[in-house]
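2024-03-11 09:14:02 INFO worker-7 job=invfold-0412 stage=load source=structure_tokens
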């Protein structure tokens, strides 16, 4: 058996592994709001997300632009070298994502695969040319730079948007929102549902067969008209439902959960099986610079695999728990993050600036604003981390930011956007009080530093894997495949041990 055939077999197996570890880490993107607000039983929430995943996976066109030609020029390498690159990326991706999930750290599967492709292609080009200058010519600088810049900018934009929208929402409805929502909630619900439906069209279903270039152009050209029509329609529907005493907020959160899950499957599927499909296509002699759609049965199988992992994985709960603990409004929520001296000082500085800013606001206005943040008993479901207002804002703002970026063809990370929106809404809601603020800020900074770590680790791991495969060929492939099995087993045991310790403490 030659190296190329064995590598392709390994790629197919690794694709399933990548699907499992990928959905485990990305589940926090679409489960956080529903689980945090206890909008329904966990099985119901997972079932709603599963429907979104399966629909989204079949909508995915599978062309996998980033994996094939978005980061490097495949024409520079021969078939064997391309297969080595994609195999190295698949191996590095499973180890990296499983490592993060073991410690409950959410990260971006887009960032991981982008930087793995960057590191693998650069290492292979370096071995081939012997010159770093020539190796850099292999990288698609324009595409890579656009992706990286878009991802970095999305972090600040998402946090600010979540902060502002949640502040306004709480100012209008307060924590005792149920009576006020009966009067004015239909307008707010119209905005929320409009943003979610537009998000489904722009992000979740953009690869569906019915979304022809003509339809996309119509949506893009008449976006404001479509948004206005949707707002009027959904506001009217919401008014009828509210008058019928239907909890429209629960519907919004469940629709938002399904839409984010759908978008995740439709777009992030490329991060999990993209390199494996590209490797198989390279082995079959296909032109990687052309259009290579993936068979529908492969996409459906991928969706079912992710659904199975979603229902059975304990690590998905750990990753979700990290974000919920950092955003929780409940008292007594334990944070594993230790307070650092410089973080405490930073919190004091921010508090000083905030207190100074408050003095500028007239006393009566300040007192009125403060009264809107008075918490009410039984305003949230028992055991929930936040109420349905914040849960729906999380989904609405994340959907709006991602939809806008997609319409403008700006790359971003859905993980970074959903996480930073959740942190922004938590801050606006007063969840980061003086007693827990430093530890929660430490947690947020730990997660963000982990994102930078993702990029660095991805480049190094993929580069090392490429070097091993290039120098040792079939022996290196067998060794790396066994290493993946050993490490994932070790991570599983470590996660189980950490879970027992945290439960006991």
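2024-03-11 09:14:09 INFO worker-7 stage=emit residues=505
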């Amino acid at each position: 058996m030659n190296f190329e055939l064995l590598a392709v077999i390994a790629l197919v197996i690794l694709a399933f592994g990548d699907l499992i570890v990928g959905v485990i880490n990305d589940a926090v993107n679409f489960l956080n709001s529903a689980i945090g607000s206890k909008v329904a039983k966990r099985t119901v929430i997972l079932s709603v997300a599963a429907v979104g995943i399966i629909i989204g996976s079949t909508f995915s066109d599978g062309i996998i632009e980033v994996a094939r030609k978005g980061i490097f020029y495949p024409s520079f390498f021969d078939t064997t070298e391309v297969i080595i690159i994609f195999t190295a990326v698949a191996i590095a991706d499973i180890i990296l994502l499983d490592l993060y999930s073991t410690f409950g750290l959410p990260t971006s599967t887009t960032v991981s695969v982008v930087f793995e492709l960057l590191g693998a292609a650069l290492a292979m080009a370096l071995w081939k040319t012997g010159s770093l200058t020539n190796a850099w010519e292999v990288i698609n600088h324009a595409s890579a730079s656009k992706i990286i810049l878009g991802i970095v900018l999305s972090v600040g934009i998402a946090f600010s948007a979540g902060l502002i929208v949640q502040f306004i929402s709480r100012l209008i409805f307060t924590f005792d929102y149920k009576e006020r929502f009966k009067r004015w909630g239909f307008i707010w619900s119209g905005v929320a549902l409009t943003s979610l439906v537009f998000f489904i069209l722009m992000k979740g279903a953009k690869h569906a067969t019915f979304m022809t270039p003509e339809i996309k152009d119509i949506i893009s050209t008449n976006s404001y008209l479509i948004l206005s029509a949707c707002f009027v329609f959904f506001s009217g529907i919401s008014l009828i439902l509210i008058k019928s005493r239907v909890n429209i907020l629960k519907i919004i959160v469940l629709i938002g959960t399904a839409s984010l899950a759908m978008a995740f499957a439709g777009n992030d599927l490329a991060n999990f099986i993209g390199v494996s499909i590209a490797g198989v296509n390279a082995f079959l002699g296909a032109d990687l610079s052309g259009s290579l759609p993936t068979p529908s049965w492969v996409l459906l199988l991928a969706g079912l695999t992710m659904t199975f992992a979603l229902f059975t994985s304990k690590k998905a709960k750990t990753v979700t728990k990290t974000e919920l603990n950092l955003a929780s409004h409940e008292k007594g929520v334990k944070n594993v993050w230790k307070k650092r001296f410089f973080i405490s000082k930073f919190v004091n500085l921010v508090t000083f600036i905030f207190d100074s800013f408050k003095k500028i606001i007239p006393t009566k206005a300040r007192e009125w604003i403060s009264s809107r943040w008075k918490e009410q008993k039984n305003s949230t479901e028992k055991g929930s981390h936040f109420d349905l207002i914040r849960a729906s804002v999380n989904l609405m703002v994340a959907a709006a930011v991602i939809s806008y970026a997609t319409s403008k063809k700006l790359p971003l990370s859905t993980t970074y956007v959903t996480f930073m929106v959740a942190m922004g809404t938590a801050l606006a809601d007063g969840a980061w009080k003086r007693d827990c603020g430093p530890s929660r800020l430490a947690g947020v900074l730990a997660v963000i530093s982990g994102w930078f770590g993702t990029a660095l680790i991805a480049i190094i791991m993929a580069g090392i894997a490429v070097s091993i495969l290039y120098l040792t060929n079939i022996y290196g492939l067998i060794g790396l495949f066994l290493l993946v099995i050993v490490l994932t087993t070790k991570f599983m045991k470590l996660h189980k041990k950490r879970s027992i310790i945290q439960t006991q403490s």
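2024-03-11 09:14:09 INFO worker-7 stage=report msg="The CA atoms of residues 68 and 288 lie 6 Å apart."
2024-03-11 09:14:10 INFO worker-7 job finished
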